[in-house]
Amino acid sequence: xxxxxxxxxxxxxxxxxxxxxxxxxxxxxxxxxxxxxxxxxxxxxxxxxxxxxxxxxxxxxxxxxxxxxxxxxxxxxxxxxxxxxxxxxxxxxxxxxxxxxxxxxxxxxxxxxxxxxxxxxxxxxxxxxxxxxxxxxx
Length: 138
Description:
Strand order of the largest sheet: 1-2-3
Helix content: 25-40%
Mean pLDDT: 88
Number of strands: 6
Shape: globular
Distance between the termini: 31 Å
Number of helices: 6
């Protein structure tokens, strides 16, 4: 049985809630990623910051990314998957929540992230097109 732990990218780079959006953007550029999990000072996941969030919620509204904290953009409870959850649960969670990236937690600790590309590589027999369609439709 394939689990999230098998599919995930095991490093878990993140941005602290009290870091600035500017710092988060620099980290995204350095890592060549479009999103970063947001963790509080207790290392608990509080949300996910995307490059789109930075553009739409900060820059387009005239906010200063050097004074806006990443944690201000964390909304609601983050959608996650447990490290030992199986492939079916991963696919169901991504489709039902319409997310392309899924933080992986073990207990309360962020241990990795699963992107749509990880699913496509690890589960070649799964109709990934159906998952993309589910994520992309309203």
